[in-house]
From TrEMBL:
Residues 14-445 form the Acyclic terpene utilisation N-terminal domain. Transmembrane segments: none annotated. This is Exopolyphosphatase. Residues 499-586 form the AtuA-like ferredoxin-fold domain. It comes from the Bacteria. InterPro entries: AtuA-like_ferredoxin_dom (IPR056362), AtuA_N (IPR010839). The lineage of its organism: Bacteria, Bacillati, Actinomycetota, Actinomycetes, Mycobacteriales. It comes from Rhodococcus jostii.
Length: 606
């Protein structure tokens, strides 16, 4: 390694680079990181939806693993072997042994000698079949699932870091994991490197935070970033890396000579992504997110330290998907004036053809736009989107749904057109997040010679793992404490506050953070649950909890059931809640004039 490639890396630190953040992420991340002096490459492919996609693929006779990983690996196999670089990925999906076999075959074809291990044990469908007494309670709704009423498609417990550690200790160069918590890929690498024990909770928790920050790839380096416009052309943000030290602290950076940036804001944005409360549950440690300290460590370098961990609980998260029925959608283009009258007429006509909304399990009409009726054709266009779902396939198939809507095109409003031909229905899965006792989940490592090495869960302590109440007692009053903040002027919230949102099964999380202490004091008082409901009327009837993180100058809102039964089943136009943060940031609010600063461009709206 050259000095340039390892620039900024603390002595003794482990450099881990995340080459992909999801199934579908760009494929050049591995090349970037190999030029950046990484010792371990980690790759996360398994969003909640991906498991269902792989299950459907298997059902059609395809692969149950992410075959694209083999293609990426093939491009860099020689360099990885020559450099002694380890690779840890969850691309194994539903068939980690199958992917391991494919990698061994690739190595044999290329004459490269690498040891490949597969982690197994996450699939608990057999356990569910044998134990009809299991009460699988949805952790968001409290409702218990009756398995006898549903066809289970996937049921995977989230494994932790110690099977990865075992595989690396046994000489594996490439570790193929199935459903493992995203951060565990990094935790396992660090625990192996530094010889941590299962009770080194603070170190493990520090690695969880580092892993969480880099797990979604470029979302830590300028992608999906509220304040992007302040930094000029960010180009294509580089892939993130973490220099992890023996004590669990880490410095977050990015691949060399790449676009994007790494600042405390880009790191905070990712810290607030897809988390819930103060205690961040992982299989091997409970991480106290109120203990995390974030500070700049130079250009494109951010230090994350001080993290405290607690013993894990006796349960693992279980991601279960069962067959929910079928869905279909059609989008109608509407241009020009009389929009309300056009929509009303179309809805009456469509309902006469396919049935009333209440005749479906779910029916959602959504109108998007127009942006400007006096603007260009595109700006003056609105989209009318109709999405339906039902257990009865024939209710939403092409013949009875999409073709019938198309059939009224010349008998309806002026300018009626469709964005697609009539579509066929598709199967959707219902996501059911729950917990399963760890003593029912048995992980092991499958090595090159076919041997299975069992890996026990670390000791747990349910009492020690609950240092915080489930939710903060939120202030009920939306106007109460503003009077001492002086005069106010209207501005978009996003001029002062960063936001990021995402999905957690059927719920959404929405994080918001301030960039200075004064703004955070105002935000803490201002942005209560009740205020959030006023700013975002869609949340009026939903359960919302707020968790404040004064150490991060921010807060996280859990919005339960906003996404219904999860991304595959959700009928919203944004089924993963990705846009909620920017929606909140665009709300016009009264901001204390004392917070305005000509230096950063924050000015009242005239």
């Amino acid at each position: 390694m050259t000095i340039e490639r390892t620039h900024g890396k603390p002595d003794g630190a482990l450099r881990v680079g995340q080459f992909t953040g999801w199934h579908g992420d760009r494929t050049d991340g591995m090349a970037e990181l190999l030029e950046s002096g990484v010792e371990i490459l980690t790759g996360d492919y398994l969003a909640e939806l991906t498991m269902l996609v792989l299950a459907k693929n298997e059902h059609r006779g395809g692969k149950g693993y992410v075959s694209a990983f083999v293609d990426v690996l093939a491009l860099h196999l020689d360099e990885i072997a020559e450099g002694g670089i380890k690779v840890v990925t969850n691309a194994g999906g539903l068939d980690a042994p199958g992917l391991a076999a494919a990698i061994r075959e690739l190595c044999a074809e290329r004459g490269v000698s690498l040891s490949v291990a597969a982690v197994i044990g996450d699939d608990v469908r057999d356990v569910l079949n044998e134990r009809d007494d299991l009460e699988l309670v949805n952790i968001d709704t409290g409702v218990a699932l009756d398995l006898s009423e549903h066809r289970v498609l996937t049921a995977n417990a989230y494994l932790g870091a110690w099977p990865i550690v075992e595989a690396l200790h046994r000489g594996a160069d490439i570790v193929v994991c199935p459903r493992t918590t995203d951060a565990s890929l990094v935790v396992g690498a660090a625990a192996w490197k530094f010889g941590w024990t299962p009770t080194d909770y603070d170190q493990l928790a520090g690695a969880v935070v580092a892993g969480h920050i880099i797990e979604c790839g470029a979302q830590a380096t300028g992608g999906n970033f509220s304040f992007f416009a302040e930094h000029g052309d960010l180009g294509l943000p580089g892939m993130p890396l973490a220099d992890i030290s023996q004590d669990g602290s880490a410095i977050i950076g990015k691949s060399v000579d790449s676009g994007g940036l790494v600042t405390t804001d880009t790191v905070l944005a990712q810290l607030f992504y897809e988390v819930n409360g103060h205690a961040y549950q992982n299989p091997d440690v409970v991480t106290d997110l109120t203990s995390v300290h974030v500070e700049s460590a130079g250009a494109d370098r951010v230090r994350v330290s001080g993290t405290v961990g607690f013993a894990p609980t006796s349960t693992a998260k279980l991601s279960l998907t069962f067959e929910g029925g079928y869905r279909n959608t059609m989008t109608i283009g509407l241009t020009g004036a009389n929009l309300k009258n056009k929509i009303d007429w179309i809805r009456r006509q469509v309902e006469a053809e396919i049935g009333k909304p209440e005749s479906f399990d779910e029916c959602r009409w959504a109108t998007i736009g127009p942006a400007n009726v006096d603007g260009t054709f595109e700006e003056a266009t609105a989209w009318l989107v109709l999405t339906v779902r039902d257990k009865e396939r024939s209710r939403v198939d092409r013949a009875h749904f999409s073709s019938r809507i198309v059939s009224i095109a010349t008998s309806s409003v002026p300018g009626f057109y469709m964005t697609t031909p009539p579509q066929s229905e598709r199967l959707f899965g219902v996501q059911w997040p729950s917990l399963i006792e760890k003593n029912l989940v048995h992980a092991s490592v499958l090595v090159d010679d076919g041997s299975h090495i069992p890996v026990a869960w670390p000791a747990w302590d349910d009492a020690a793992a609950e240092p915080y109440p489930i939710a903060e007692n939120d202030r009920p009053d939306v106007t109460g404490s503003d009077s001492d903040l002086g005069a106010t002027a209207p501005a978009m919230l996003g001029a002062f506050v960063g936001t990021r949102s995402g999905d957690k099964a059927g719920s959404a999380n929405l994080g918001a953070w301030a960039r200075d202490d004064a703004t955070f004091r105002w935000l803490d008082t201002f942005l209560t649950v009740d205020r959030l409901r006023l700013l975002m009327p869609e949340l009026a009837d939903l359960r919302v909890e707020r968790f404040v993180f004064s150490n991060l100058r921010g807060m996280n809102f859990m919005i339960y059931q906003y996404l219904g039964d999860g991304v595959s089943a959700c009928t919203r136009i944004d089924p993963q809640g990705k846009g909620l943060g920017e929606y909140l940031a665009s709300r016009l609010v009264d901001v204390p004039v004392a917070l305005y600063s000509a230096e950063d461009g924050n000015q009242p709206i005239e």
